[in-house]
Design brief:
Length: about 600
C-alpha cells in the first residue's frame, strides 16, 4: 500500500519523481523520499510526512537523469525519517523502493548482519538493497544480483532499484502492482498510471515474475531465468485532467460531483432495446452457473451486497463473503460456482487471494474492476469494467455508484442466462429509469441541503444509518464514508436490527439517517419512529412525497425513480453529508489518517 515511481531518460528526473509522488499520495502519505543517480553517487532525500514536507526539506533540487521515488503507508515500523524509502545498502551504492511485505525479512536480516551488513530502519524493505549488494559482490553483475535477490524473497513486492555508476533502473514484481510507462525520450515505472499520466498514456502492465531493466534509450522484460518476455502495450483511456482537483478544494468533492459523468460512462452502450447488452459478457455466458459468490472488501463489499440483493430477488443462490474471510467462511464451491470479485483497483490483496482460492477449488471467476490490465482483470476468467475513470480520494465515491450499477446490469445478464432464474417483471422499466440516473444525480448535486445539515449536526456524539433491502448496503456505505473522513463514530444497520441492541445507544445526540428506496420501506419507517421516541433526530433520505418525511425532522430529497436506483441517489446525499461534516471539522479529507486507497497487503 505504497506508491512507487521511477524514471530514466534524458534531462533531470527529480521534478518528475516529485510530481509522480504527489499523484500517488492516495496510496500512502506517512513518509516520502527520492533517490537520484547522477554519475557521482546515489543521492537519497527522504523524510516522514507528506510529499510537500519532502519538497520543503530539499535545499536544492538534485540533478540526475534517473531516479526512484516512494510515498509510504506504514506496515513495518512507524513513519519516521529512518523508515522512509528509499533504503540503501551499508555503503549507499544500491537504493531500493518497495511496495508489499517481505515475509522472511527477519531471517534475512539476521543472516546479512552476520555478514557485516548494517541496518538503520525497522522496515522489511531494507533487506532488499543489502541482498542486492551481497549478490553483486558475488557475481559482479547488478542484473543478476537483482534476480537472485528477488528469488530469495518470500512475500509480495514491487521493487525499483538503482545502483551507483550504472545508467539503469532495475525492477521486479510479485503480488504487488507495477506498470511501465513508455514515452519517446523517457521510461517510467509506477504502482499506478496516474504517477506518469501527464507524460504518457502508453503502458505495459507487468505480471508476477517479470524482471525489468530500463536504460535511457530502451527497456527489457525477462522472467527470473533471463528469458525475454513480450508484453502487450495498452493505451490508457484517461485524461490527465481527470486525475487533478480542478476547481474543487478536495478530490473527494470533485469525484462526488463527477458521478453524472462516470455513471454515463458506466451505462453507455450497455442497454439496447430494453435489454442488457454487455459486450464482454454476451447472452448465454452464464448458462452453466448454479450459484454465485461475491468477494470484496470495504466499499466494494457494500457494492457487492447491492448486487447480491438483486441476484437473490431473481432466485439465484447467492452469498457475499468478505475477501479476507473467504477461505474459512465461503460455502461449497464447484464448477457451477461463479465467483465475482469486486475491486476498484483490481489489486486488492485479500480479494485476489480469494479468487485464487476459488479457482483452485474449481470455480469460474469474474472481475468487476475499474482498471484495465489490473491483476484481477488478468487473473479472472472474465472481466467487466466499471468505467468510472481515475479516483484519487481515498474515500471511494464515484467508484461505488459505478460498481453498483455495473453489478445491477450483471445481475440482469445472469438472470437472463441461468435457466432456474426469474428475471425482474419490470426489467424494461428499470433499465429505462437507469438511463435517467446521471440526470437524477445531477439534480441531487444542484439541490442538496447536505452542507447545512452537516453544520447543524456536527456536534453529535454518534451517527446511525439505517435501511432495508438495497437501502441496507447504502446505510452501511454511508456510515463507512462518515467514519472514514470525519473520525466520528458512525454505524450502519439493517433497519429491523436497530431494536435488537443498538437502540440502547440512541439519544437526542444521535442523528438517525433513514434511507428509503421505495421497496420495503415500512420497516425503515417503523424503526425510525422507535429511534425518534428515544429522542433521536430523524433524517429522511427519500423522494419528496415518501411516508418517511412525515416523521423526519430533516429531509434530504432525491428524485423519484425505480427502487433499484433510488438507493444510489440516497448514497450521493450521504456522501455529501460526510464530506461537509469533515470539512467543518477541518479533517484531511483526501488523506484520512491510517488509510490508503489501494490495499495491496493482506
Amino acid at each position: 500500500m505504497c506508491g512507487i515511481i521511477a524514471r530514466i531518460g534524458h534531462g533531470d528526473a527529480a521534478e518528475t519523481l516529485l510530481s509522480g509522488l504527489e499523484n500517488l499520495e492516495y496510496r500512502g502519505y506517512d513518509s516520502a523520499g527520492i533517490a537520484v543517480q547522477n554519475g557521482s553517487g546515489v543521492k537519497v532525500h527522504k523524510c516522514s510526512g507528506e510529499v510537500d514536507d519532502l519538497k520543503s526539506s530539499l535545499e536544492s533540487q538534485p540533478h540526475g537523469n534517473m531516479g526512484i521515488g516512494h510515498t509510504r503507508w506504514s506496515t513495518h515500523g512507524p513513519p519516521t525519517d529512518a523508515n522512509a524509502h528509499p533504503h540503501t545498502d551499508t555503503a549507499g551504492d544500491v537504493a531500493v523502493v518497495h511496495n508489499g511485505v517481505i515475509d522472511n525479512y527477519d531471517e534475512l536480516r539476521t543472516e546479512l548482519q552476520a555478514k557485516g551488513h548494517e541496518f538503520e530502519s525497522d522496515t522489511d524493505t531494507e533487506v532488499i538493497p543489502h541482498l542486492i549488494d551481497e549478490y553483486r559482490t558475488e557475481t559482479g553483475d547488478s542484473e543478476e544480483a537483482v534476480r537472485r535477490a528477488v528469488e530469495t524473497l518470500e512475500g509480495s513486492y514491487a521493487i525499483a532499484a538503482i545502483v551507483d555508476g550504472e545508467e539503469a533502473v532495475y525492477a521486479a514484481r510479485k503480488g504487488s502492482p507495477l506498470v511501465l510507462g513508455l514515452d519517446d525520450e523517457e521510461w517510467f515505472l509506477a504502482s499506478d498510471v496516474p504517477a506518469f499520466l501527464d507524460h504518457t498514456d502508453e503502458v505495459i502492465y507487468l505480471e508476477d515474475g517479470d524482471i525489468v531493466v530500463l536504460d535511457p534509450d530502451s527497456y527489457r522484460i525477462t522472467d527470473l531465468e533471463g528469458t525475454p518476455i513480450d508484453r502487450s502495450t495498452d493505451t490508457v483511456d484517461w485524461d490527465p485532467e481527470d486525475a487533478g482537483k480542478g476547481e474543487y478544494d478536495h478530490y473527494m468533492l470533485k469525484e462526488i460531483n463527477n458521478q453524472p459523468t462516470s455513471l454515463s460512462n458506466t451505462i453507455e452502450g450497455r442497454i439496447d432495446d430494453g435489454d442488457v447488452a454487455l459486450e464482454e459478457l454476451p447472452a448465454g455466458t452464464f448458462e452453466d452457473v448454479e450459484t454465485v459468490q461475491f468477494v470484496a472488501c470495504g466499499t466494494s463489499y457494500h457494492a457487492a451486497m447491492y448486487g447480491a440483493n438483486l441476484l437473490r430477488s431473481a432466485g439465484i443462490s447467492t452469498e457475499v463473503v468478505r475477501a479476507s474471510e473467504y477461505t474459512s467462511m465461503s460455502g461449497p464451491v464447484d464448477e457451477g460456482t461463479l465467483v465475482v470479485a469486486v475491486t476498484q483497483s483490481g489489486e486488492t490483496a485479500d480479494t485476489l487471494e480469494a479468487v485464487r482460492e476459488a479457482t483452485a477449488r474449481g470455480a469460474r471467476s469474474l472481475a468487476v474492476t475499474n482498471v484495465v490490465g489490473s491483476t484481477a482483470a488478468r487473473e479472472a476468467d472474465d472481466a467487466i469494467y466499471i468505467r468510472a475513470g481515475p479516483e484519487v480520494g481515498v474515500a471511494a465515491t464515484k467508484t461505488f455508484s459505478s460498481q453498483a450499477v455495473t453489478l445491477a446490469l450483471l445481475t440482469q445478464r445472469l438472470a437472463a442466462d441461468v435457466p432456474t432464474a426469474t428475471p425482474a417483471e419490470d426489467r424494461e422499466t428499470m433499465l429505462e429509469e437507469l438511463k435517467e440516473l446521471p440526470e437524477h444525480v445531477e439534480r441531487v448535486l444542484e439541490t442538496t441541503d447536505a452542507a447545512s445539515l452537516a453544520r447543524d449536526t456536527v456536534d453529535s456524539k454518534s451517527y446511525f444509518f439505517i435501511g432495508n433491502g438495497l437501502g441496507h448496503s447504502v446505510a452501511l456505505e454511508g456510515a463507512l464514508k462518515f467514519k472514514e473522513i470525519t473520525y466520528e463514530h458512525a454505524e450502519g444497520f439493517a433497519a429491523g436490527e436497530l431494536k435488537h441492541g443498538p437502540l440502547a445507544l440512541v439519544t437526542d445526540e444521535t442523528p438517525v439517517f433513514a434511507v428509503a428506496t421505495g421497496s420495503g420501506d415500512g420497516k425503515t419507517k417503523t424503526n425510525a419512529i422507535e429511534a425518534q421516541t428515544r429522542g433521536a433526530p430523524i433524517v429522511a433520505v427519500s423522494p419528496d412525497d415518501h411516508p418517511l418525511t412525515d416523521v423526519a425532522e430533516v429531509h434530504l430529497s432525491v428524485p423519484d425513480t425505480h427502487p433499484v436506483w433510488a438507493g444510489l441517489l440516497a448514497n450521493v446525499q450521504l456522501q455529501l453529508v460526510s464530506y461537509h461534516a469533515a470539512d467543518v471539522l477541518e479533517r484531511p479529507i483526501d488523506k484520512p489518517r491510517n488509510l490508503a486507497k489501494s490495499v495491496t497487503v493482506e
